[in-house]
Specification:
Structural class of chain A: mainly alpha
Radius of gyration of chain A: 28 Å
Strand content of chain B: under 5%
Largest sheet of chain B: none
Structural class of chain B: mainly alpha
Strand order of the largest sheet of chain A: 1-2-5
Helix content of chain B: over 70%
Radius of gyration of chain B: 17 Å
Number of helices of chain A: 7
Order of helices and strands of chain A: HEEEEEHHHHHH
Oligomer: heterodimer
Helix content of chain A: 55-70%
């Protein structure tokens, strides 16, 4: 019997009440503890209850008193495949590994730019834009690994945290590309101190709260309170 | 009990975050069970792993119910 066939034996409207446990299907229709296909107002007949028995106040000994009426066709379900992917992901955890590079480099870039603003030494701005460029580049695998984690661990389900992380990651990348574009196309602005120069500096520092917020939201997933 | 959409969304988020932690805990106990040779120790960790599997299954069930309720409220 397959899972969808088992679901028909839900113990309601005169139907028999069957439950599956470790591949065997038991008829619990006549049990006092399975009225209308419901057990302890929690478990429904017509389902595979294998995973739930470990939490029950009784062992699987209780099932011995019920007739085995068939076997459950156990094929590798989507959730089993997903579980393997989750285990694989949790073994290598690429997202936490990759996020630290852009995070650190954005801060380093801001520090270098701050030193440039204080000393006017161009080498500091060069360091800033190199670090900023690598940070922006490294944010691509970090974001992709984040999306992979979202897909594997959280079924791409949208909640406030995930929406925030996605929106602000897009913003982070956009700021990164725009900043690099300004610096490459207008190298003379460093001497002119024009409005573009102000924007360029603003963007380098603006990415700090953005990247911190993304990391903070990630922290809420890793260490929920 | 009637929940607001905001409460349901919050509950959904909590459950979503908790599920991979149950899977991780189960994996942790399964690996721990492989480190021992005595049946008692192996059974201890296998039993803990099964409990984590039960937690995960329960969370998934509750999550599905919450998502159903969210859908109902949004379709009203």
């Amino acid at each position: 019997m397959k899972l969808d066939e088992l679901a028909q034996y839900n113990g309601q409207n005169g139907q028999k009440a069957y439950i599956a446990y470790k591949g065997k299907i038991y008829d619990v229709t006549d049990s006092k503890r399975w009225k209308n296909g419901l057990h302890m107002a929690r478990h429904k007949a017509g389902e595979d209850l294998t995973d739930f028995l470990a939490l029950a106040p009784h062992t699987d000994e209780v099932l011995k008193s019920f007739e085995v009426v068939g076997t459950l066709d156990v094929e590798e379900s989507k959730s089993t495949k997903k579980e393997k992917l989750i285990n694989f992901y949790q073994k290598f955890h690429p997202h936490p590994v990759l996020i630290h590079y852009p995070l650190g480099l954005f801060f380093f870039a801001a520090l270098m730019e701050a030193l440039f603003l204080l000393t006017s030494l161009k080498s500091f701005d060069d360091s800033a834009i190199y670090a900023f460029s690598v940070a922006t580049l490294m944010s691509i695998p970090a974001i992709l690994a984040g999306l992979l984690s979202w897909w594997i661990n959280y079924d791409k389900k949208t909640t406030k945290i995930f929406k925030n992380k996605i929106r602000f990651s897009i913003l982070l990348f956009f700021i990164g590309v725009l900043t690099i574009f300004i610096r490459i196309t207008h190298p003379d602005m460093l001497a002119n101190h024009n409005s573009l120069y102000l924007l360029y500096n603003l963007l380098i520092f603006a990415n700090l709260p953005v990247v911190l917020f993304i990391a903070y939201e990630g922290g809420k997933i890793t260490w929920p309170s | 009990m009637d929940y607001t959409l905001e409460e349901l969304e919050e509950m959904k988020e909590i459950l979503l975050i908790a599920i991979p932690k149950e899977i991780s805990a189960r994996d942790f106990y399964l690996n721990a069970s492989k480190k021992f040779k005595t049946q008692e120790s192996i059974q201890l960790f296998l039993s803990l792993a099964e409990q984590e599997k039960g937690h995960e299954a329960s969370l998934r069930k509750i999550l599905a119910e919450i998502e159903e309720n969210i859908k109902k409220i949004k379709n009203k």
